[in-house]
Amino acid sequence: MTSQENQSTTSTPHPAPPSSDSALPSSPTPPKPGPSTAEDLAPLNPRLAALATKRTTLTQTLEDLTAHRATLIARTTLRSGLSMPAEWSEEQRERQALSSANAVIKEHIGLLHRYNEIKDIGQGLMGLLADQRAVRVSEVMEDFGVAGKD
């Protein structure tokens, strides 16, 4: 053997290829849980703390509104004044409550239209009286006991 061959055989041995029996490298450690409350976030980033606080407030508001909605649905009656049948599903009750609310809103809008038409007619008549008497409309309104904002 030559001196080069001796050096290659006497040098460090080649590492064996990994086998299925060898231990696998450990997985990275899981990240530590981060701060979850607004107080924990404050030292890190004040904007994150403000957002966390706002989110908490909004979540509480949503829970309150959901509870209030459930109370209103439970109190809703049919248009006839009878309570809703017990065998109705929650979805049917919600639909009926929404339908009842929409009916009341439509009725109120209709009444407002009627009121405005009557008010316009009354103001027109007071304008005619003011012209006939040659006075201001406000004086005619005072004569009839109507305030300026009525």
UniProtKB/TrEMBL annotation:
Keywords, sorted A to Z: DNA damage, DNA repair
Spans annotated as Disordered: 1-44
Biased composition (Low complexity): 8-26
UniProt cross-references to InterPro entries, sorted A to Z: DNA-repair_Swi5 (IPR010760)
Keyword Transcription applies: no
Family from the record: Belongs to the SWI5/SAE3 family.
Name the UniProt record assigns to this protein: Swi5-domain-containing protein
